[in-house]
Amino acid sequence: MASFSRDILDRILSQVDIVELISRDVTLKRAGSNLLGLCPFHHEKTPSFSVSSDKQLFYCFGCGKGGNAFQFVMEHDGLPFPEAVESLAARAGVELPKRGPDSGDDSHYQLGLELLARAASAFEEQLAGQQGAAARTYLEGRGLPEAMWKKYGIGYALPGYGFMRRCFGADTKVSRLLDEAGLVFQGKQGPGDRFRGRVMFPIKNQRGQIVGFGGRVMADGEPKYLNSPETKFFHKSDLLYGLSEHRGEIRGRGQLVIVEGYMDVLALSAHELPIAVAPLGTAMNAGQIRRIFQLCPAPVFCFDGDRAGRRAAWRALEEMLPGLLAEHEPRFLFLPEGDDPDSVVCGQGRQGFVDAMEQARPVLDTLLEGLRNLAGSGAEAGARVAKRADAMLARMKDDYLRQAWRQVIERDTGIVLAQARRPAAVGGEAGKQQASSLDERFLAALLQKPERLHSLPSAAREITLDDEGVHAIYTRAFSYAETGDDLDERMISRLAMDFPDEQRLARWVCTEKINDDEFAGFLPALQAREIKRRRKKNPGDLAQRVALEQQLIKTKQQRRGADAHE
Ligand SMILES: [Zn+2]
After folding, report:
1. If you measure from the C-alpha of residue 406 to the centroid of ligand 1, how many angstroms do you get, rounded to a whole number?
2. Based on the number of CB atoms within 10 Å of its own CB, is 538 exposed (0-12), middle (13-18) or buried (19 or more)?
3. Separation CA 285–CA 375 (nearest Å)
4. How far is the CA of 279 from the centre of ligand 1 (A)?
5. Contact 396, 390 (CB under 8 A)
6. Distance 519 CA to ligand 1 centre (A)
7. Architecture of domain 6-92
8. Which of 221, 245, 410, 520 is such that its CA lies 20 to 30 A from the CA of 94?
9. How many A from CA of 38 to the centre of ligand 1?
10. Domain spanning 238-359: which CATH class is it, in words?
11. What topology is assigned to 106-234 in CATH?
């Protein structure tokens, strides 16, 4: 994956106004120093989505999403970081330095994409032409009318060899591009067309660029479906068919269904359900699932009701566990054996599938069922289930969800999963939370007014903040402060770039302002904590103890001084 220099990211951010960016999708009203609106990422009636114009960050106090303009585009458009950067760069008119997997040979890469787009047009022309009659009949027979061909760019590849050469000529540069794009293969008699006598479905990446094709035979023939091979454009396991085409509808309706293949995606769309996406013949991986959740927190995963379908569901469940949050509501739908979404909508119409979708069950049901199947009878069986469940729960990052699931699993299986508890943090949950709130408020106060960093004595550097993430941000902010030139709003955007997963940054900035008096009390309190800890760790050394006692008295006086201000 290409990386971008901080300089270029800075430039893009400085050209984009986050308020303007977000205003296109969210109505924002001024509330104090920030702007407030209804969150686009979760359903709510009262606004908790806050945008800071001077810090150029957003944060939702309802669902916890937050960050800078890049994060907004990533979340909102379901784009990975590099694509979000490109999208914002294009909007801001900032030219990005060359990138692309082909060792920086960007224009060559671009030519490949153009070639793929031109190939798609050529296939479309053939579908509309004389030789496309059988393909047109086939598509209509599958319930896909002409409007659908246009919408999805469906085409037809002529039988026999030589079509690509007739389209693009035979010079070596073009041949090389065709090969790299997976449109031809190298045979004994030279390059040959990979797709012959097939209905062609262009496959787009998230940015809507055609990166490959799926081809389906119309009569008997093997393989029934043929996809582009892995190329530098086409990475099967990264792609989801329909994602680019349906992103807007999925967001608008808050509905998404994952189906097996592109014929299912198209059949649903033909029945006014343009909300489906499909992997390209591979099992869903964690990256694809993450993208699905970014787009829709309550997706329906559709599987065949047979054994293979159950296995696929279990695999999807395992892939999804680590990233699953309490806010997500994925459901699994098992269609009757022998049915697929295509056959359901064609047989029972739109409503038939909508009804089926309503029958979809929470993923936890699938987990419980899988565990029950594993159980069988006897004491060993119980141990087996406990082990398996422990291992699965341990992979979950959301503590609340894990806890809730553990209770349900214990109730359902009658097996106590003692080990499923993660090792508790030293000092217990409550202590940790309290401490981190002092730490967090301290850091929030610094970020709200970066100039406060300058007012801190050098001893403030020695403070250890409890939360590792908070401490890392603190040290980084300090090092920016020392270089001196970044003590303005740019510091926040730099921190946001250095800690892209730290949504707390955005929350701190958007949270209500911490006044100078409260701020003045933080450092003495933190120092006192530090001294107490050191004293506890090292009780034997008398001289050091005396020194620490004296320090403690001093900080207590400082604290009283700070309190007296209030
Ligand atoms: Zn929200």
Report:
1. 27
2. exposed
3. 27
4. 28
5. no
6. 29
7. Alpha-Beta Complex (3.90)
8. 245
9. 8
10. alpha beta
11. DNA primase DNAg catalytic core, N-terminal domain (3.90.980)
